[in-house]
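ArnR1-like winged helix-turn-helix domain-containing protein (Candidatus Nitrosocosmicus oleophilus), 89 aa
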Amino acid sequence: MSILGNVGGINDDLKRTAVAIMRKLNSERIVKTPWVSTQSLQVSTRAVHTYFNQAILILQNNRLIEMNDQNEFQITHRGIADLEIMERQ
C-alpha cells in the first residue's frame, strides 16, 4: 500500500489534490525541470484549490515532496515510488 494511502483523516478531494501535485512534479522531473514554483502547482491543481495547502503539508510531512528556499517543490525518490504504487492499484 502507498504511504499516501495510509495517511489517516484525509478525504477523497484532499487525496486527489495530493496525487495531482505528485503527478505534476513527476512529469516536470521527467522533462528535466524538477523544481516547480508554488504558483505553477496551484494553477495545475486549480479545480481542487481548497485543499492545496493541506495537500502540500501532508506530502512534505511524509517526505513525498520537498521544498527549496525559493518556495519551489520537487518530488522525492520516495514520492516517485509511492506514486508508482498508487498508479498500479
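The chain is about 60% helix and 10% strand. Strands lie at 36-37, 65-67, 72-75. ok done for today
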